[in-house]
Structure formats: structure tokens, C-alpha cells
Structure prediction request, 81 residues.
Amino acid sequence: MPPALSQTLVVDNGAYTIKAGFAKQGAGSDSCSVIPNCIARGRDRKVFVGSELDSCKDFGGMGFRRPVERVRALSALRPAE
Prediction:
């Protein structure tokens, strides 16, 4: 039998950010990590994922992809026919 877990990881995979942290009683939203939820590709074809965008110096000509674009994610919420 595996050992009991002592902490619970909470992940909020939002449209523009991912928030993650360990659940603690009385902990506020400032105790979690906030990461951009996107993939970007520059003119030089270099790919930036999530927090790697912080190291990017030139956003001109960069293409961004987010998990929720043009309301495509809503099709997953429709009931099956």
C-alpha cells in the first residue's frame, strides 16, 4: 500500500494563466505560483513555453497559442447527442 499523501496539490488550468500550489488551511492566493498558459514562437523559430516568456526581450512578430482560442473549448462542454 502506498504511503498516505501529506499535501494536496491544487492546479487551476485557466485560459490565460495556470495557478498551482499546495493546499494549506488559511493560505491565501499569494501562496500559489502563477504561470502564463501559452506557447509562443518567435521570428527565429525559438519556442517559449509558460514562464520562459519572462526571458523574451522582443515580442514583435511573435505568434502566441493559448488553450482557449475562438471558443473552441466550449464544444467540450456541450452535452453529447
Notes: The chain has one domain: 9-77. The mean pLDDT is 75. Strands lie at 9-13, 17-22, 33-36, 39-41, 47-49, 63-65. The two ends are 41 Å apart (CA to CA).
